[in-house]
Amino acid sequence: MGQGALTPRIPRRSLLLAGLAPLGACSRPPRALDVQWLGPDPERGHRLRTTPPTGQARARRTEVLVLGAGVAGLSAARALRAAGRQVTVLELDSAPGGHSRAGLVGGLPCPLGAHYLPQPGPQLPELQDLLVEWGAAERRNGVWRIQEDRGVHSPAERRFDGTAWQPGLLPAPPDPQALAQHRRFAQQVAEAQRLGFALPTHRAAFGPTHRALDAQTFDAWLDTQGLTEPGLRWYLDYCCRDDYGAGSALVSAWAGLHYFASRHGFHVAGDDDEPDARPPITAPQGNGWLVERLAAPLQEALITDRVGLQLDVERSGVRLRCWSPEGLEDWHAASVVLAVPLFVAQRLWRSPPAALQAARLQRAPWLVANLLLEGPPLPRIGAPLAWDNVIQHSPTLGYVNAQHQSLDPRPGPQVWTLYWALPAAERPALLSRSASDWAARVLATLTPTHPDLPERLQQLRLTRWGHAMAIPTPGARGQAALVALRQLQGRVRIAHADLAAYSVFEEAFMAGLAAAQDLLHSS
């Protein structure tokens, strides 16, 4: 599954932070660390930057062509195929799933991208129904709930505060003044829920108050509300980086409130009322288990290793020229679903509509590192190893223990998946620096907290996502162009989470389903 050139093996101790204390005379001799890239090859997607090649191309035909086998493309293709349409899905990568892909490291399943799905609420019955169909949830007496084995097992989260591991991610308010600020933010979230926020976003109104929130950064709004308590501000910034790939200084106030108001609100640590106990849905391979099931009905209709180069709407249909390992192909279809990011669609479509030309979104690069350990490192003081483990004030988002869902109590090999949302300025370095360089950076963020980690580490696999997530910066959600693209008619439909101005599974799933339904109703 890996793409790109393999990198040399590098001595483990060369990856330690400069000045890290030795682990003791009885520690084992250093071994070479196996470091490789795993996942999509960025150079393949960059073919779209060049002038489309001319020459002989093999003619291919289908009724509906879906370009992109991420969550949106798979969702659209599944719905179209269920309705009896002839569908072909073309995917750039060697496997479907996009940013929800999974992989194997040391034979153990792990995510290469998104690793969990919040439990969908009543505003998303389509996804609830799908989870019931897959056996991951059930309805009893009209009440929807997930199966126990699909929810994150306890302990779910912990945070290293520099001294000890603390349960949960939200720092407890240190004094009554801080507690008052936490409660005031909880009230603001409750007011936002009454105002109207939803997943997917198009199922809630977007009125003047929403637009006012969308016009300013989350940090600026928090300042005007007098919400300055350091622990609260760290946590809110972390949540934004986790969901949007950028912190509270960059995302809009609409996005900052949407994170909580569209889900289960905000619970104040230490208050007597219990938080809403709806653990997220996950598996060892993260959201890979979801895309596996979305892709299962497609079988031969899913064709990988295809790079779309140029899209033309013609009198008799739509023509897509694409690259394949065997040579150029010209696909002819009655209609096309473009399940690709908007910046890709802008390059691909030779004469795009004005709304597509006008759409503007910033994107966050991500690095995902999967670390194969021969066993868990020595425990530190405080809360035990959890599913999600966050080091406070680290540049990374922490790591997920992919084997946390296992019911086997015996210690053994495990994979930690570390997530790192990088500033846009680091995109060139993400693509140009070696896997060894990035491995050193990854371990530099972890070894102060886990000094024996390098001695237990056997393999390190790195996945690059150069344009991973759309960032809901001020003004992004309210773009008229996005509204127009959701209502686009004709032979081409746009289906991507970008239409919501941010990137999560629920938005991608519904964008694909909506595009399929539009095509079915218009024919």
From TrEMBL:
One of its GO terms (molecular function) is oxidoreductase activity. InterPro entries: Amino_oxidase, FAD/NAD-bd_sf, Zeta_carotene_desat/Oxidored. Residues 37-57 are annotated as: Disordered. Residues 71-520 form the Amine oxidase domain. Pfam families: Amino_oxidase. This is FAD-dependent oxidoreductase. It comes from Inhella gelatinilytica.
